[in-house]
Amino acid sequence: MFYGLSRGSKDDRVPPNQKVTTGFPVLHYGNVPEYKDLSQWDFRIFGAVEEEKTLSFSEFKGLSVGEVRNDIHCVTGWSKLDNVWEGVPVEEVVKLVTIKPEAKYVMLHAEEGWTTNMPLEDFMAKGNLFAFKHNGEDLTPDHGYPLRFVIPHLYFWKSAKWVRGIEFLDKDKPGFWEKNGYHMYGDPWLQQRYEWD
Hints:
Layout: E1 2-4, H1 10-13, E2 19-20, E3 42-47, E4 53-56, H2 57-61, E5 66-73, E6 78-89, H3 90-94, E7 105-110, E8 115-119, H4 120-123, E9 129-134, E10 137-138, E11 148-150, E12 163-169, H5 176-179
Parallel strand pairs: 1-5, 2-6, 3-12
Antiparallel strand pairs: 3-4, 5-6, 6-9, 7-8, 7-12, 9-10, 9-11
């Protein structure tokens, strides 16, 4: 399956106070995880679900794969247009569990305790996926290898690198950057960069 999510003309695709780049800047906090052996890697789906599920890397890559083209927008002011990502669409991952009715939010968990939050409705939006390739190439460690979540309609810090799990929640709570002053939602079109925006 392929989803194209670009908005139209270039002027319509770049949020206020963003500059288009053809590069792919690298920004993160902490160490860059390096994997030589993925046999110990796992992905956990837990929280407000009927039964938790844990997948190995080979099981995760064995799920149905999709491709999506989109634009991404970093809170630091750059936008990169026409990215092509390959990975497992969100809807394929959530088929593996039964989400409880009280679940309204999601917390993504990544390496070194990194987390980010979002409403369940945004997490489930068509075109979101767990990517292992960008523009036809495997992700590099700096960009989230072996797995990165991609949610293009929010600022790019919500697209968690090195993602290892999904926690379904009945109440919203801040993730790593949200605890450190970033906006709880992060809409680039509304310039929701910080908690006071």
